[in-house]
Amino acid sequence: MLIGTHLLSLWQEGRTRFTNLLPEISNDDLRKKLSPAPNSVGFIIRHVGDVEFLFAKNVFRLPDLEVHAKTVIAQKDTGEWIDLHELVSYITQSGQVLKKAIESQREDDWAQSITTKEFGTKTKAESLGRIITHTAYHAGQLKLILKYGSL
User: Fold this and answer.
1) Does the 3-148 domain belong in CATH 1.20.120.450?
2) How many CA atoms lie within 13 A of 53 on its CB side?
3) What is the pLDDT of residues 77-128, one digit of tens each?
4) 121 by DSSP, 3-state: which?
5) How far apart are CA 80 and CA 86, in angstroms?
6) Signed CA dihedral, 137, 143, 149, 151: sign only
């Protein structure tokens, strides 16, 4: 088995920590926050999708991809992320696009260094670790907000 196949499997399994929470979420949950934290469930879901699209484009260099990372641009919860169907569709699409970007890497691409303003210079393999932990971090936040958060 090639390294890219192993890394794809690792990403897919890691992402389930996030995606397995989605069926538990209702439209009413999207506005929940865990005070004093500023971000709602809806914002976090959208943010994970935004960052996946950004990784596909900027780290894994998927061509012809336009990204409108609204949560990254706003840098705060604007309260607009309140449509569960739209958010689940967005996160499904971002996952498909990132999967395609990961699958498009050649074996020697994983050792290639990428520099971003967000986390400096890392190999593509290290960058994949970054997106896996980013998604898992926000999955933990979601679980806590769903359990203890309020409107």
Assistant:
1) yes
2) 20
3) 999 999 999 999 999 999 999 999 999 999 999 999 999 888 899 999 999 9
4) strand
5) 11
6) positive
